[in-house]
Design goal:
The structure is a single chain. By secondary structure, the protein is mainly alpha-helical. It has 2 domains: about 70 residues; about 90 residues, no CATH class. Helices cover about 80% and strands about 0% of the residues. It is built from 8 helices and no strands. Helix 4 packs antiparallel against helix 5, helix 5 runs parallel beside helix 8 and helix 7 packs antiparallel against helix 8. The mean pLDDT is about 90.
Length: about 200
């Protein structure tokens, strides 16, 4: 009889444990916090500046979602906590990545401006040989100044976009550098003497 009481007590405890485990609530607060962290990572530009960290965080999020679907709430809760931490890491990495991109673009801008000044000096050296190219050079020089200004203004907000603009401007410099090198190699044609000029 004594063992029977223990057996019944043990079964009651076991049944209550199963009931409590079966009645675990979905981790809505943890899911919401992880979702907010994911949104913040997206707003910080993690897809551009910390793609690897963002990808890892999304895998954890997907695992948490799968566990929610299977009603494994305790595992899902921990996975959402881990996902939140991973998204926060991606946000921090994005800030660092953007800062590095801005520094790189600013250095590229300095080099680009130096190359442009050198190109302008080269243009002056071959000014007499330009003739039919002079109009195109003037148009490109004006457009270059405007596009350079736009690139400088976009660095802080969109360094990747600014980098693309710098690459386009670099191609303009390369084109004219090749043209001026070619013109510099050409001999200068002597100016024709006017008819009727008196010889001394």
């Amino acid at each position: 009889m004594k063992y029977f009481k223990y057996s019944v007590s043990l079964m009651v405890i076991l049944i209550l444990s199963l009931v409590f485990i079966g009645c675990a609530k979905p981790p809505d607060a943890e899911k919401s916090a992880a979702n907010a962290a994911m949104t913040a990572a997206g707003a910080a530009g993690a897809d551009k500046y910390a793609a690897a960290d963002l990808g890892a965080a999304k895998k954890i999020w997907d695992a948490a979602e799968a566990q929610m679907k299977d009603k494994k709430y305790n595992e899902a809760k921990q996975a959402y906590i881990d996902a939140k931490a991973a998204f926060e890491k991606a946000t921090a990495a994005a800030a660092a990545g953007k800062k590095a991109a801005v520094a790189e673009v600013n250095a590229s801008l300095v080099a680009l401006e130096e190359a442009w000044l050198k190109l302008e000096a080269g243009a002056k050296n071959v000014e007499k040989k330009m003739k039919d190219k002079k109009e195109a050079w003037t148009a490109d020089a004006t457009a270059f100044a405007e596009r350079l200004k736009a690139a400088k203004e976009s660095v802080a907000a969109d360094p990747i976009g600014a980098k693309a603009k710098i690459a386009e401007l670099k191609s303009v410099i390369d084109k004219w550098d090749a043209t001026f090198t070619e013109l510099a190699a050409m001999p200068v044609k002597p100016e024709p003497t006017k008819k009727g000029a008196k010889k001394k």
